[in-house]
Amino acid sequence: MADPMNRRGFLTRASLLSSSLLLSGCDPLVQQSWFRNILYGAENVTRSVQGLFLSDARLAPEYSEADISPKFRANGTIRPDDDDYTALAADDFSNWKLEVGGLVERPASYSLADLRGMPSRTQITRHDCVEGWSCIGKWKGVPLAHVLDLVGLKPQARFIVFYCADTMEQTLDGEAKYYESVAIADARHPQTILAYEMNDQVLPIPHGAPLRLRLERQLGYKMAKYIMKIEAVESLKEINGGNGGYWEDNGYEWYAGI
Ligand SMILES: Nc1nc2c(c(=O)[nH]1)N[C@H]1C(S)=C(S)[C@@H](COP(=O)(O)O)O[C@H]1N2
Ligand SMILES: [Mo]
């Protein structure tokens, strides 16, 4: 699987991508200030410190149908080869359920039909990947805040953790699966949705079927695809490498604000 994205590899990828993406429906990001800051190291400390104390209540820009990228790039895992996932995909995820647990009053599990029956939000937003490309897509899903209200967060809950189906690497202790986490305030942001549709279609496997996170004020790697379980926790320290996400355990910032 992918190597940790160290700065040198990242720079190489960034320059490759900014040239190759000119040919696709997506745009290179080198002209964006947040991207230059990441490339050249400015403000990273400030960002992570801010992420611990503040949330970003601003709305991300939303776009029109005409702005939707003709081809939305799929990145990272594009089809988990885990047996459990393969079996669920074979039945169009009719046996999949989202487990919601941890520091909640009423642990629950929801089928896709359950989630589709809940209030929904549709948004056309720009996805920015740390590797230096962006695409605009349309997403429909249930606001995460709605699900959190259904299960009732306990007062100690500070973070929401997303556990994904895809194995990224085999480790001495077993396997490292993709996972991510956000602060409660970001989980409750109105544009934070658990998406089951993309561009008016059932969410395709390369983009995270059956359910993926959209967290529009942060970079692409925060937006967990192939979600199996979400958990409310007080601390991220005990989970996997302790940094709140697969890429964070490999050196990336936990708060990836744009
Ligand atoms: N489970 C899982 N989620 C993931 C990834 C992944 O490899 N596995 N890649 C992340 C990265 S780096 C990006 S840019 C986006 C890509 O989403 P897309 O495939 O819809 O473009 O998913 C993010 N979420
Ligand atoms: Mo990404």
TrEMBL record:
Protein name: DMSO/TMAO reductase YedYZ, molybdopterin-dependent catalytic subunit
Organism: Faunimonas pinastri
Family matches, as PROSITE patterns: PROKAR_LIPOPROTEIN (PS51257), TAT (PS51318)
Domain Oxidoreductase molybdopterin-binding: from-to ranges: 91-234
CDD domains: bact_SO_family_Moco
Highest taxon, organism lineage: Bacteria
Gene3D superfamilies in alphabetical order: Oxidoreductase, molybdopterin-binding domain (3.90.420.10)
